Amino acid sequence: VTAKTSSASAHRLLDRLEELGSVGATADGGVCRIALSDADREGRNLVRRWMGEIGLEVLVDQIGNIFGRYPIGDDSPAVMIGSHIDSVATGGKFDGNLGVLAGLELAQTFIERKIEFSRPIVVAVFTNEEGVRYSPDMMGSLVFAGGLSLDAALGSVGIDGTRLGSELERIGYRGDLPIGAIPIHAYVELHIEQGPVLEAEGTVIGAVEMVQGISWTECTIQGQSNHAGTTPMRLRRDAAWAACNIADFIHQLAGDMGGTQVGTVGRISLSPNLINVVARQAVFTVDLRNTDDARLSEAEKRFDAYARDLTQKAGMTLETKRLVRLPPVKFDDRIVALVEEASLSLGFSVKRMPSGAGHDAQMLAARCPAGMIFVPSVGGISHNVREFTKPEHIEAGLSVLERVAITLCIQGGPYSALSTL
Ligand SMILES: [Zn+2]
After folding, report:
1. How many A from CA of 135 to the centre of ligand 1?
2. HEC assignment per residue over 262-324
3. Ligand 1 centroid distance, CA of 374 (Å)
4. Which pLDDT belongs to residue 96?
5. Bridge partners, residue 220, by sequence
6. DSSP characters for 359-381?
């Protein structure tokens, strides 16, 4: 079997991206398909229908991950290609969907062309990658890889007070395939960069070497609500002021530390949240990331010390809850090299780079050789309704993924020695 350039159809992939993007479409051109919502169910149903139509064996595991396998019933170690289809509330058509639908496109191409490989191909859709409703994010792949128990995941309580297990059942995706039951030879994920680097440098393909470490903390500050007109400034215990002060500190901290350190306060809710009342309570999140684990720990320590000192001096209390803590993850050198070689042989410029965002591939990396392929995001914009990747870059990514997948699928080929579980 030889890898022929662009035998897979970018046109069909683009059509499917549009059609899936119409599920949960928002008025401003974006997508809102939050994990385990009705829209997520509808998106899952569509992908599952496509899997069935092209002849894949559809399996759903106990955390709702969907797998489309070809050939049917072949449970030897597979080349798995996947990502997620859940979105943030203001998401776009490409994040996650691209990796799933590119996998689907390859499987369909192989089936139509009657290409027989010595390893099965599995298209994977992982549950709750975004983590906006239920923590932690990348949950389906984390559970699949053995990093979180099924019970803990099913028991996760959402920001809307719902239990993940109940919602999974409600939308009909609490499957019966035991967790981790599919053996994997290697995992590859095609994803939009979600950052500005590739576009700025005019590079077409990113060979992703690693994913930076992530730390998510939820902070609750208790002050005292009081009249905004009559309470002298020196007598205030203003939770809104404290939260904003800490948000400002996080911004400066990342600047001070430099390197790959970034810091974000992305969610703040105030109580009672009224124009003329000093806030009694502020609940907010802190997202810190770095490619270096020690530096990430340092950022966490400095933020924690600052926040405790500030609230204590101002007569308020601070409670912190760790939501997510993931160390940086390195991808398999051989797969990174394979992505690089495939890109160059197809005539695309390629750059080795870290991922600034978390991805399912980093969870799979704990279980099997894993890697990722990035394509440029226009304007570096993502988690935004204006998220866009040019059709020619979708096509390039698909071609590279196809070549990588074919190489990995050949038993006795150069990548036969990848370890399996
Ligand atoms: Zn994603």
Report:
1. 15
2. EEECCCEEEECCCCCEECCEEEEEEEEEECCHHHHHHHHHHHHHHHHHHHHHCCCEEEEEEEE
3. 11
4. 98
5. 283, 319
6. -HHHHHTTTS-EEEEEEPPGGG-
Q: Let me know if 163 is exposed, middle or buried by CB neighbors in 10 A (0-12, 13-18, 19+).
A: middle
The DSSP call for residue 133 is S
Name the nearest CA neighbour of 246 among 279, 284, 288: 284
Residues of the chain scoring pLDDT < 70: 1-6, 419-421
Question: What's the gap in Å between 304 CA and the centre of ligand 1?
Answer: 29
Q: How far is the CA of 326 from the centre of ligand 1 (A)?
A: 16
First vs last C-alpha separation in the chain: 25
Query: What is d(CA 60, CA 71) in angstroms, rounded to the nearest whole number?
Result: 16
Kindly state the tokens that stand for 384: 């935004």
Residue 161, C-beta contacts closer than 8 angstroms, at least 6 positions apart: none
To the nearest 10 degrees (0 to 180), the angle between helices 391-409 and 97-112 is 60
Tell me how far apart the alpha carbons of residues 111 and 54 are, in angstroms, rounded to a whole number: 8
Ligand 1 geometric centre to CA of 217 (Å): 21
Q: What is the pLDDT of residue 419?
A: 58
Please report, as a single letter, which amino acid is at residue 77. P
Cα 174 to middle of ligand 1, angstroms: 22
97 neighbors 17 (Cβ within 8 angstroms) = yes
Q: Residue 90 Cα, ligand 1 centroid: separation in angstroms?
A: 13
Packing angle of the helix pair 97-112, 10-21 (nearest 10 deg): 140
pLDDT confidence of residue 418: 74
The DSSP call for residue 404 is: H
Distance 208 CA to ligand 1 centre (A): 14
How many CB atoms within 10 Å of residue 316?
A: 21
CA of 35 to the centre of ligand 1 (A): 12
Instruction: Find the 134 Cα to ligand 1 centroid distance in Å.
Output: 15
Please, are residues 367 and 400 in contact by the beta-carbon 8 Å criterion?
no
Helix 333-345 to helix 391-409 angle (10° resolution) is 120
Contact 328, 215 (CB under 8 A): no
The alpha carbon of 84 and the centre of ligand 1 are apart by a number of angstroms equal to 6
Cα–Cα dist 94/140, whole Å: 19
